[in-house]
Input
Amino acid sequence: MFLGEEKYINRAEETDKQLRKALNFWDITYLVVGAMIGSGWLFGALYASSVVGPGSILSWIVAGVLMFFIALVFAEISGMIPKTGSIVRYPQYSHGSFASFILAWSYLLSAITVAPAEAEAVITYMSSYVPGLTTTVSGLTVLTGLGIIVAFIFLTFFFLLNYYGVHVMGKTNTGVGWWKLLVPLITIILLISLFFHPKNFATPSFLPYGSSPILFAIPTTGIAFAYLGFRQGLEYAGEAKNPKRDVPLGTILGFIIVVAIYVLLQVAFIGGVDWGKVSTASGVTIAPGNWTGLSSSVLANGPFYEILKISAIPILVGWGIFLLIDAIVSPSGTGWIYEGTTTRVFYGMAADGHLPDLFLKLNKHKIPIFSLIASWLIGALFLLPYPAWVKIAGFISSTTVFTYMISGSALVVLRKTAPNAHRPLKLPVPWILGGIAFIASFLIVYWSTFSILWGVDALILAGIPIFYIYTMPKRLGSNLTLGIVLGVIYWITLAVTTIYFLDYGIVAKVASYYTMEPIPSFSVILSHTAPNFVLWVVINVITTVLFTYILYRGLPTAYSKSQIKAGFWVIATIFAGLIVSYLSSLGPYMPNYSIIPYPWDTVLAVVVAAVLFVYSALSGILTDDLVAVMKGLGIDITKDNNK
Output
């Protein structure tokens, strides 16, 4: 073992012991409930129905089933290894530093944007009764300068609540959790009982835009975003009183409760649309069955509140006042949870050796203080480039679910490397359930469409130079100067090729072709854009593999080298996912053209994901980090692996 590795492993274990163990079963459950019931319930139903129509109910169900398998697999791992910042630490235990860094970086990109997304959702709802907070740009509701300032004030409140410790935040969240459960439930009951239009489910049909939107609506309209909150019990596992029992059970219970609520909310929303009254309130005629038109109607200010208000039924109008209050409470509750989550992501990355020791430092309330400050200030920046809630939701969903692929892979690897570890929840057929979890994660990312995925992949790849410059020299023993040189060249290459070949060479070109009358043939468009995609892939694959190999050759130990080899499946997944997306009906040529039509593109995605899952599972290694954490639990797994 390189000496730098031993330092990081021992330091992480010591810091973990100092965290305050304050959360019980219901605290864990309501962390999940509180994180999942946020702005998703306020906006998700509108955006999902505008893309799918009445069949958006199926989108929530399909997403719930897929996410359940992911949550189930994480529940086993969390019971086995309950750690704060767990999701960024599991790859370290199963595959080592290279996979761990890329997945942690991706997770950080997503986690750090959730709190600002929730703050922005609060402001958007407030705009229905406070003018000047939002405006409409190209059909999307975005924050004004004043709106951004108010959103930052909410972020500061999230920061302060977390500052005073997990006990204060956890108990506050459990109390608020009851409110967050009751308000949507009462809304469902009132709308279905008093203002329900069954004919909407066939107006003009159950699936007016076809069946494929059922799938790509999952990551792009806030559905996956709403379901991401199940991870909160995992992230706070190291601060639970009885984590081996409470974290798996609390995670699963909270998830099932919220999925049922979201499906019923979608039913209530679809049935609650009165087309005539929505048109009158919007000042523009929206024909019955024009579900897409609802996203630019008065409902965009606050879907459920506006439906209650225009119903003109006194009890519903009165209940709308509670929704205005909940429009602040629910997103805020999710926001302060994710402020803490991002704090624990920074903490977990520092524990893995990807960030300086500063991010492990605890304040007097046993909170990683500099991690919390970074979460607050960096998160505020995301109010600027992503001012629309639905845009943030799509970005978050893709980067977060990308990291969830580790669940299925780690399940299989840890069964092999730590067979005798205590598992309060031990799933049957790990290869099958792990494979389903991996494929489900891959599909949700794939369904986010090429228009989102190319930017997500570029941002994930942009983290690799940080690995060259910081983690590899500090933890694995590579040459720092060489890492800096290669890292800078990598950044320049990635930036230039992404802007020229992807942004200008594909996205902008295709958009310009689609403004022409008539639209050119697919062969013409393809001949002018496909070479750009091929060049981007070839250049960046060569750069990534070559630069990593150059640094790999200079590593001082076989164990350090094994961690690099164990992480290449992540690189393969990044590029393979983008290639499949490009070829599919969700590629850059949608909705007019595609290279591989639906549903064969989805079949291809499943096959590619299955191959990548096997590759990732076979790449796993016995890591010193896992040996150390198991030793702390009284288990010597070196004996199992020496047999």
User: Anything to note?
Assistant: The longest helix spans residues 314-351.
